[in-house]
Amino acid sequence: MSNWKIKLSLFLNYFVFAILLNSVGTVILQVQGNFGVSESSASVLEAFKDLSIALVSFLVASFITRIGYKNSMLIALGFVTLACAAMPSLPSFAMTKVLFAVVGTSFALIKVSVYATIGIVTIDKKEHASFMNFIESFFMIGILTGYFIFSAFVDDTNPQSTAWLNVYYLLAAVALVAFLLLLTTSLDESSVKTEATKPLTQDFADMLKLAIKPLVLVFIMSAFTYVLIEQSIMSWLPTFNSKVLNLPTTLSIQMASILAASTAFGRFGAGFALRKIHWFAVLVVCLLAASVLVLVAIPLAQNNDGEVTGWSDAPLGAFVFPLIGLFIAPIYPAINSVILSTLPARQHGPMSGLIVIFSALGGTTGSIITGHIFEAYGGETAFYFSLVPIGVLIVCLFFFNKLQKKSEAKIEFTAGGGH
Asked: From residue 261, how far is each of 169, 182, 288, 372 by CA, in Å?
């Protein structure tokens, strides 16, 4: 089977959801002006998105092979198309919550299916790691594009205007194109189909057994902590730009794109670096560099004088802090590839489900904590907080590396005929 068309479809699916999922930072900023909600109240949008992802992943990941990866992705794209089309007609904070719940539910199906499908369309560990980095890079390109699409619909002269909601008609059209491309694409799932005679409870039990393996437990902690860091920064960067750096709303949204761009570049670069350097060394150096950047960049935000009208007169802090994306970028795809390529293909579906569940929980935890710190102590303190989970993540990766080496040694010993 020629895999180019299904790979293109996976890229487009990820692109659509990158825009929708990571619009939460922009929407958090907009609903504060449109619907008069506070920072802490607006932060629950992350929960509607991420808890939906976690719940649906928990329910379907163990038996998603029965539904089929292609069918799951089609269902997700169909729901999102309808939700986006309905959003401008029902402008309210309640409808915004519903939209993110639908996006989260659909992304659970998309991400588990995409991650598991990568195992079908790649031939070895190196291709798996490379494709994982490239598809996650494309996700960041989707986020980058989303900032500019949303900012094009925002009216700086009228903060109460809900005209920006018309962006969802455009996103509904893009989701429909993704649906039609996938519908006309073939995917051979015979290698991972679950036997029909196997009870659903057994599928679920298998996922739980997988979750309590020491290697998987430490991986879960690592993924949770990483996404906590990433989402706490990504979801609150537009608000930080607006309320701390005093940038206009449109510029606040556009300049948050620097984070997405730097993350995309970081993942592209990591795709090459990880072929020559061990993943643990790369990731620890990246986390230490990210910590230094936080300590250097946040003080720059305090040296902001005068009115800002565009990119040319924006303060240095608005450019420097988002470069943290370069350093945190390689972590997520690298650890996901390590855990998936360590497991047999039949366990990629359940493992992908666990990745999605705990990534979602990490994301909503990070956003809510940051929202409350932001409201109580200000934006600088909220972003200094990222140093704590960065330290925790370094410790998690140390143990993850040790356990992964033991697991590989055990596999090699068994393959060599040992008992």
From this structure: 25, 27, 20, 27
Q: Which two tokens stand for residue 148?
A: 């500019």
Q: What is the DSSP letter of 190?
A: G
Q: How many helices (H) and strands (E) does the chain have?
A: 21, 0
CA dist., res. 147 & res. 28, Å (int): 13
d(CA 169, CA 165): 8
Secondary element (H or E) of residue 231: helix 214-234
pLDDT one-digit tens code per residue, 171-212: 999 999 889 988 888 777 666 665 544 566 666 677 777 777
- Residue 161 gets which letter from DSSP? -
Q: What angle do CA 54, 40, 378 make, to 5 degrees?
A: 120
Considering the entire predicted model, what is its pTM?
0.73
For residue 96, which of 108, 84, 106, 105 has the smallest C-alpha distance? 84
- Residue pair 116/340 in contact by the 8 Å Cβ criterion: no
CA dist 103 → 273, 274, 282 (Å)? 33, 32, 33
User: What's the angle, vertex CA 110, arms to CA 252 and CA 85, rounded to 5?
Assistant: 60
Per residue in 264-312, pLDDT (tens digit) is 888 878 777 877 888 888 899 999 999 999 898 888 876 666 677 778 7
The answer for 378, left when phi > 0, alpha when psi is -120 to 50, beta otherwise, is: left
60, 238, 357, 386 from 375: Cα distances, Å? 36, 15, 28, 16
